[in-house]
Predict the structure of UspA domain protein.
Amino acid sequence: MNENSPAPVVVGVDGSDDSPSTVILAAAYAADRQSPLRIVHARAWPTYTGNPPLLTPPVAPIEDEPTARLIVDNARDLVRGVHPDVNVTGHVIDGGPAVVLIDESRHATLVVVGSHGHGGLARRALGSTAMDVAARATCPVLVVRGEVTRNGPVVVGVDGRGTSKAAIDFAFAEARARSVPLRAVHAWHHSTNLVDTAESEADGRQRARSVLDEWLSDDRGNFGDVVVETVPVHQANPARALGEESAKASLVVLGSRMRGALRSRLLGSTGYAMVHTSQCPVVIVRSAT
């Protein structure tokens, strides 16, 4: 890849029913950013669970080359029909889908994945590829979920920690690109030993607004054209608050740290819950802190 060329938007395709909508959304992001679009299909090899007999002939990948190429070519043709100005290329890469896309994230501005893949079980729960990529990619990851629209507000979760900054920056840029409002959500709750009163409710809400104002101040100055709505929510479970917001949103943006061994720890409990339950697409923005 040319070091002087803009970083691409990367989208993973597998030929499933969800692939076209995933590709179209990825193309829209590439058009917004004036970035090239790189369509990637991972051609996985079967794995042995035991010792194969000696002199066993080499095992071919699950898909043959023509089938894999057709998946990529169909996706590329779809993009050219919808966004003819986007510079789009298609690539078949041998390897597991998650491994391939995580490697692609090292040189990408955004990786886009569908939330489901082939197979009945995979379609009833979040695809393992989407989960692994969202947890381990080194660039922002868009998981395509629920209703795909670009008209609703962009929602960003603000937790008042270092993970919020990169997510807020991303969310402001997206709200501007879509010409929609930004809703910044901070969930707060009292400790269990404090009785709720009208005064404590007002104090808690004011503290939540102060957190939001502090973390939004820089981007409000840089994105003066973006309408900002601050949303302090009295809710012990941030994922529940964000899940309710996702019903009317076009995008939910969350921050995540690059640490921990388990996927739920890499994403954080809120991110882990949202990529499973959000009613609209979710972006996980990695923070190095």
